[in-house]
Design a protein that fits this description.
The protein has a domain of about 40 residues. It has no helices and three strands. Helix content is about 0%, strand content about 20%. The chain has a three-stranded antiparallel beta sheet with strand order 2-1-3, with no helix packed on it. It is elongated, with a radius of gyration of 20 Å. The chain is mainly β and about 80 residues long. The structure holds zinc ion. Zinc ion binds next to loops.
């Protein structure tokens, strides 16, 4: 089940909820201020990417080896 994060627009209480399915965007009741102002934050459920690409290096280069050709890579062959 995906875990979604909600935030109350009234008291800014934050809550993480497990939802069975993608529910509509109707607001839920805030457990803190009891107002129906708990709205889902715009965030995707955490996805586990097994073989993701290497994180972007801060230096703008791909390090050792031949130039990787990535748009952000400043190394030229
Ligand atoms: Zn609240």
């Amino acid at each position: 089940m995906p875990l979604y994060e909600y935030e109350c627009t009234n008291c800014h209480h934050r809550e993480e909820k497990l939802v069975r399915q993608s529910v509509s965007s109707e607001n839920l009741q805030c457990p803190k201020c009891q107002q129906f102002t708990l709205s889902r934050l715009i965030s995707v459920p955490a996805q586990v990417s097994s073989h993701s690409a290497a994180p972007l290096p801060l230096g703008g280069g791909c390090g050792v080896g031949p130039p990787c050709g990535a748009p952000w890579c400043q190394r030229k062959g």
